[in-house]
Amino acid sequence: MFKKLTSEFDHFKSQTHNFRILTLTNLVYALVLPVIDIFVAAYIMRNSNDTSKVVIYQLAIYTGIPLTFLLNGFLLKHFNIKTLYSIGMMLSGVSMVIMMSLKTLDLTGIAVAGITMGLSFGLYWSNRDYLAISITNDENRNYYYGLETFIYTIIAIAVPATIGWFIQSATGEEDKHTAYLIITGVVFVITFLASVVCFMGRFENPVQKQYIFFKFHSLWYKLLSLALFKGLAQGFLVTAPAMLIFKILGEEGALGNAQSIGAVLAAVIIYFIGRFSKPADRIKTFTVGLVLFAVGACLNGVLFNQTGVIVFLLLLLMARPLMDLAYFPIQLRVIDIVSRIERRGEFTYILNHEAGLYAGRLLGAGTFLVLYYTVSEDFALRYAIGIIALLQLFSIYLSKKIIAEGNKIAPERELQNEQIDIKVIEEAAAKLVKS
């Protein structure tokens, strides 16, 4: 066992310096992601008991993200990417302060806090996505996302359970509010540490300065369609667990416990899939993730009780990382291909990709809100997730088309050899500059 762990650690050390630093930065920042994703929604539920406000908060976040992606393209002309990446991480703490300082959770305050969090996510994800594509190639992307997902899943065991226990241990509403304030302070400290780690990297800004285009290769439009389906679930899936648990399971303690069940097994499985799977296996990984999500969502709709929620959360715990493990390498490979054909910088496609996600997020969140206001809250919680999960199954067909067309345009071996040559040149140049 120890020999196996040593072997895996040696494999990590064999990666490039920037690969290791980006992974470690994301590891530290991952400690606050469960707080942002789950417990901010729980805070809104505790203080308003209104699921529509949680979805509106999520919509505000998703409105801020594409605007910041666009702004980031301009900022990259004037600021170092490490600075922007760090500011994005630290803004998440600012958003939480805004939320905790609201005396009443009115829509204006929720929208301001949500847009601020959207600014945070926009700076974080736009720069993180560019760095991910610049430091990896198609050959090691399964490993990169498998390792990253393994880290996130392990953290998802300890953080939700610990925070849930911490909030539950507080007696009275005032003490619980104080507990949330303490958690916000801890978030600030962790985001600062993540920023320190980030500055250890030798990350370079994109060379190309023009990022906005309106005509693209047909392969890119297919990927935008796939992004729309991915965005459908993102529309409210981040906060759906918190809403379901508050309505059916109860308090934050149950939230933390439910998120932790089965996470160890999921983390180990995801790591080894990422470590040993090949690019050709991505369709299988994607299909399993989408089917698990659909089964869990449909069971939740049929049962709509404690058993249904727990089964849904368990399946979602496995489904989300499987979907991401396949989706992101597919996305980056398409960017590799079309950027070479159209002779444009990678950030152009990272920026444009966000438009596809945003369209899907609006449709997903809109589906929930329409059902909420036209039928009932319970009906929306029960069936919206199932509707979206079944629609997402069309992504299997789309991803097959994308990979087939991509292989026809640029065979894997040809593209990998070109990427490896570029990486060798970049690393040699970096060593020369350092010396």
Helix content: over 70%
Work out the number of β strands. Answer: 0
Question: Strand-and-helix sequence, N→C?
Answer: HHHHHHHHHHHHHHHHHH
The description of the largest β-sheet is:
none
Structurally, the number of domains stands at: 1
| Global mean pLDDT | 82
N-end to C-end Cα span: 39 Å
CATH class: Mainly Alpha
Dominant shape: globular
Structural class: mainly alpha
Which residue ranges are poorly predicted, with pLDDT under 50 across at least 5 consecutive positions?
Answer: 417-426
CATH fold assignment: Growth Hormone, Chain: A
Number of distinct helices: 18
CATH superfamily placement: MFS general substrate transporter like domains
CATH architecture: Up-down Bundle
Bin the strand percentage: under 5%
Task: Work out the radius of gyration.
Answer: 21 Å
InterPro entries: MFS, MFS_trans_sf
Transmembrane segments: 21-44, 56-76, 83-101, 107-125, 145-167, 179-203, 223-248, 254-274, 286-304, 310-334, 355-374, 380-398
Pfam families: MFS_1
GO molecular function, one term: transmembrane transporter activity
